[in-house]
């Protein structure tokens, strides 16, 4: 099967839209939708096609809404010479096909979901401009309930005089006149689609294109209720207004349509559900209050990849927890991808061979990451490299690292944040001051407080967003709201709001080293906790994707939750996870990790941790292997186990570039060996360990230490037995040592 960019395996074609074909693809066991740019389109140059493709991706990066397809990745495959981007994959069908056997009531519910998505889009001055049946999917959410998703934003940023884009059956009349398109244009197209789903036929369908266009200009469809006795007449004026020829006579906003449905049909659809209201919180979508930091990052990008002032550059983004460092990394990722620069994002990338210009982005970097990054910049001089590490504290090493410091929001930035949520250009001053004072301007805590306010309907009610005057008149009772002051307190508050059963489920999800799915809860013997997933979702602690994989929304829980639990309970959960994962060949690494932290049998626990480290070494994941062997060393009870773990740790440390730490570990090992040397039962183990240390010293160029340890190994061997095989091994090592010293004649 075809592989795109070395990571996406194409499974089958899903469809095509303006600017590209869409395929079902798989990467690391997860299905995604991959849109591949098609350069051949009549009337457009390749430059215009590519630019529009990038605009579509850029538009999607700003959107996070339950009824809009989520963007994942963008890239260029140099071998296939194609651009692509990926989104979440929704297993579903077009809204027309999905509603063939549905009642008008069910169809209405689907279109209310679509109206909420359009309301969100239009609030951000984004217009879809290709609304039609094929671009509104109906699938299922993680709980099996129908969910509507808008897809294909290929026309959202497209403008070219004289070029009629879109589907003739759905485009509004003003598109034929090349007039300005806006929210009213989307609502017209949605009205056509709704009429089509209710009646089973597009109202403007005709035998040829010219007739279709003429109908668009001069003909009005009959009232929709006349097409079927099952369609209520209250929909007639609503569809009629959506399909007005003059945009000025149509609805101007999507929420107005929902209001009229409620008023005329006696319905009670909220303009925003909790889930759609929370989409207005700046998170993965809009970037708020970080303009200067982003411009600084872009300036370093340009120095490396545009002006070529620097061949390589290291940048740290430093700031307190919750200030948005991860969000800035993602913004730089998108910026680079749109300009054709590959982006690597994991710590192992620091140890790979760089064979092209690239950016390395590492979140939550520690000292090991800095050491590896510095080594990477020293070793690779052929290609341009920008390394950006996000960390709590700035790196002060002179001449290598440039620091971008980000702080909590000031009042002006808090105001901008509130504006983005409420859709107000001038939010009430008291609200700005209260939120700034109560959160200290920390973006994560500010989001959490706004989240609580939305869920308690103090910012939104069933009538939609509140106006500034209404907020001033009614006010917000902050005294009843618990505002966390730190991330730890944030996690603690969230945790203690859960039921006891759900707390335990959160611990399983937080501790797992491998992807965990709904079906794993059954294998773990906690199937009764499936019902608790809803509580975690409603608390916005997890998401469950269409494959059933459970994701923590806030990774802070991985660091906090375990410290708040009984050690015996944690060990038991680790063992349960390990037993489930050991039957899955793809989760062997995770299985050994969990068994090493959970089982009560000492030997099994120790050997599992060694195996965990060994498997990571086989994958060249030296950074994580170091942590694995450190766990093994901490758990070792006996001298031989300590040395065994320490020697593995030393090898991983050297490969990870942490030479000084590795040498210190070898010194500690030598001290243990000297104590054991006089033990007649331990001489062979000591002798072979010294020989292995000598081998490591040779490889690392520590020749004096190599001489010392090999000689000590040889003396021990002579004192205790005549062993030709071991003698030969030592002789070969000594020859290697002499060769490294340039003593070729002696080595021979």
Q: Distance between termini?
A: 53 Å
Main β-sheet: number of strands, strand sense, barrel status?
A: 6 strands, antiparallel
- Estimated helix fraction: 40-55%
- Classify the secondary structure makeup into a structural class: alpha+beta
Describe the protein's topology.
Elements (H helix, E strand, L loop, with lengths): L2 E2 L3 E10 L2 E8 L2 E8 L8 H16 L9 E7 L4 E7 L4 E2 H4 L5 H20 L12 E5 L5 E5 L22 H4 L6 H17 L9 H10 L16 H8 L11 H12 L8 H5 L12 H15 L6 E7 L6 H13 L5 E2 L13 E5 L4 H13 L5 E7 L9 E5 L5 H12 L6 H11 L3 H13 L4 E2 L2 E2 L2 H7 L12 H10 L3 H12 L4 E2 H6 L8 H7 L3 E3 L4 E4 L3 H5 L6 H15 L6 H11 L3 H17 L3 H14 L3 H17 L3 H18 L6 H17 L3 H18 L3 H17 L3 H4 L1
Parallel strand pairs: 10-13, 10-14, 11-12, 12-13
Antiparallel strand pairs: 1-2, 2-3, 3-4, 4-6, 5-6, 7-8, 8-9, 15-16, 17-19, 18-19
Helix pairs in contact: 3-5, 3-8, 10-11, 13-14, 14-15, 18-20, 22-23, 23-24, 24-25, 24-26, 25-26, 26-27, 26-28, 27-28, 28-29, 28-30, 29-30
General description of the model:
- The chain is an alpha+beta fold and 748 residues long.
- The protein has a six-stranded antiparallel sheet, covered by helices on one side.
- The two termini are 53 Å apart.
- It is elongated, with a radius of gyration of 31 Å.
- The mean pLDDT is 83.
- The protein contains 31 helices and 19 strands.
